[in-house]
């Protein structure tokens, strides 16, 4: 049974709760958001510090002109796509050297497909990191963002389901009634080869050449440049490629 003095106390507690709880919740939310922002800022600062440890090898800088696949299989480099550069060509495989990357290109509508470089603190460019932890190639690894954008009304039945089954994340409702799907691939092993033979007759080329830069993690200054270049040129035979009608989409710095 409730005592005569308990009812007023209960009412008073409820009054205090109504009066101060919203402010307390707001303060808690502000503190939580501040904590999140501080954490994000710290993560970004750590990313910048980590990026600063990677030193560009300027003499290995190249410009990419097209992407495709070898016109004939290349022994020892299975399931590779080829980024054709002005100086060299770069065979890129999936992280496990399985058909994941080539299977995606064989099954999507390439007219709506694109490659993007990972965000960087500098001018957007494609990067190959030599000596990255977990990279299965001594020549270095590349990270790519795969993009697929198509008007929602033009999507075939099950098209987004197929992309999501391949690991893409899809969203609709973008400006112009577009559906966008994205997927990030990391530590893709790279094999460097001579420049392609049919560079002058490619049916599909990028609208403009795109920079490609090699990075070494705190490079060993005792390593002779001649040895380094030999390590980055394991294939001696040039080859032709069949190009894809794909463009590279460049994005802003640290967006």
* Spatial sequence of strands, sheet with the most strands: 2-3-4-9-7-6-10
Oligomerization state: single chain
Helix content: 25-40%
| Count of strand segments | 12
Mean pLDDT: 77
H/E series, N to C? Answer: HEEEEHEEEHEEEHEE
Q: Count helical runs.
A: 4
Distance between the termini: 63 Å
Unreliable residue runs: 1-6, 24-40, 250-255
Radius of gyration: 26 Å
The tally of domains stands at 2
Task: Tell me the structural class.
Answer: alpha+beta
Which outline best applies? globular
Task: Tell me the fraction of residues in β-strands, as a range.
Answer: 25-35%
Major sheet: 7 strands, mixed, barrel
Short description:
27% of the residues lie in helices and 31% in strands. It has 255 residues and is α+β, with helices and mostly antiparallel strands.
Question: What are the SSEs and their pairings?
Answer:
Elements: H1 6-52, E1 54-56, E2 62-70, E3 81-85, E4 88-92, H2 100-107, E5 113-117, E6 126-130, E7 141-151, H3 159-165, E8 169-174, E9 178-194, E10 210-217, H4 225-231, E11 241-243, E12 247-248
Parallel strand pairs: 5-12, 6-10
Antiparallel strand pairs: 1-10, 2-3, 2-10, 2-11, 3-4, 4-9, 5-7, 6-7, 7-9, 8-9
């Amino acid at each position: 049974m409730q005592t005569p003095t308990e009812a007023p106390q209960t009412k008073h507690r409820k009054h205090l709760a109504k009066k101060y709880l919203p402010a307390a919740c707001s303060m808690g939310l502000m503190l939580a958001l501040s904590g999140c922002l501080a954490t994000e800022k710290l993560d970004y600062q750590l990313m910048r510090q980590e990026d600063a440890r990677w030193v560009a090898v300027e003499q290995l800088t190249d410009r990419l002109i097209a992407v495709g696949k070898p016109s004939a299989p290349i022994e020892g480099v299975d399931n590779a796509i080829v980024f054709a550069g002005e100086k060299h060509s770069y065979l890129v495989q999936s992280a496990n050297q399985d058909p994941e990357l080539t299977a995606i290109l064989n099954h999507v509508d390439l007219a709506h497909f694109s490659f993007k470089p990972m965000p960087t603190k500098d001018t957007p460019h494609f990067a190959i990191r030599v000596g990255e932890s977990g990279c299965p190639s001594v020549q270095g690894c590349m990270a790519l963002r795969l993009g697929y954008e198509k008007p929602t009304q033009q999507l075939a039945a099950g098209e987004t389901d197929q992309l999501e089954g391949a690991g893409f994340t899809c969203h609709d409702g973008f400006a112009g009634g577009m559906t966008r799907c994205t997927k990030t691939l990391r530590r893709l092993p790279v094999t460097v080869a001579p420049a392609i033979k049919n560079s002058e007759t490619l049916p599909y080329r990028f609208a403009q050449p795109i920079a490609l830069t090699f990075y070494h993690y705190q490079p060993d200054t005792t390593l002779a440049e001649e040895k380094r270049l030999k390590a980055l040129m394991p294939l001696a035979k040039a080859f032709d490629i069949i190009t894809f009608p794909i463009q590279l989409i460049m994005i802003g710095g640290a967006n």
